[in-house]
Amino acid sequence: MASFFTTPRDSSSTSSSTAPPQTPRIKILCLHGGCHNAPLFKKQLTPLITYLKKRTQSDDVNERVPPYNESSRRLNEQRMWFHEPSSEHTIDPDKLAGVDASLLWLSQCWNSQLQSEPYHGILGFSQGASMGGMWGLIETEQYRCRGLRFFLGVNGYVPCPPPDKGFGGVRREDHHKEAVLDIPSLHIYGLNNDVVTPEESRAVAKRFVDPVVYTHDYGHALPRTEECFNVVAEFLRREGRRLMEDYDPRILSMQAQLKSLEFQAGSMIARESEVNPPRALMAVIDRNAVGGWSGGRRVEPGGGAPCPEDFVKKEGERGKGKKQEGPDRRKRDKGGEGDEGDGGG
After folding, report:
1. Domain locations in the chain?
2. Which ranges are annotated Low complexity under compositional bias (predicted)?
3. Rounded to two decimals, what is the model's pTM?
4. How far apart are CA 134 and CA 153, in angstroms?
5. If both were cysteines, with which of 96, 169, 228, 331 could 223 make a disulfide (CB 3.0 to 4.6 Å apart)?
């Protein structure tokens, strides 16, 4: 999972870096495909991000559900949002394995940004697009995607539905209803895709009210063509203008000033720390000050099970001296002290 900011600009927008933004920055949460990961997906999206906006800020978070029957090395490289019920590894044939953990993980990432720079939309590829479309249907507060304004799906498909009781407030029949999600959406898929058929991608688009559909003659990929990038850019421009209607220009200007002030303060602290480095915050502890047992030690060093007193003597000296009074092994310690193991010390 990755995210990026973009501010689609019109040709009339100013190029001054000190001027307040003409439109709010759009923040998009990107969901990678199955058996993929966030760094690779970010690399694939780099041409699109560069095309949309040169100043791109991104962060990467992997999904935590690994694929089955892979080596430990591959488990660190590949991630999935869920396993289909048709998988031979799925315990319950009516459930998407791992979907609850993925939804909880996504909601935590999404909601953690609500008070600072909230996400506005989702871009998903293949299984990530399926996950995003399913997430938009969730009604349960624990998994809910609050404030979702738009959706971009690339080669998405409708996964097998959860049980009859539903999951997260989603009813089984809602998975096949049309025009359920009333948010702007753009759906991109290839007509020669042998992984996800065009019919499967069209089923995802039908979930949305007035979806925008762009098809191409390629396969299971996001085309790196100017035509495709223009379609995405125009879609985001419309969303930027729509987002602008919900923002007070004074608030946008204040946010820009606060960000500038925060940057200046950070630079001042960095310069001051370089000139006058602060004292080390970590205390240096002398090894003699480290806590430990300070009482008496065993007379004879060694380990293993306790042994009779004679066993530690030379063979010729065994049996000489005072005899043991009973089987109490603790009397072998000097001064009549009990064995440390029994004393709980």
Report:
1. 2-6+23-252
2. 1-20
3. 0.60
4. 12
5. 228
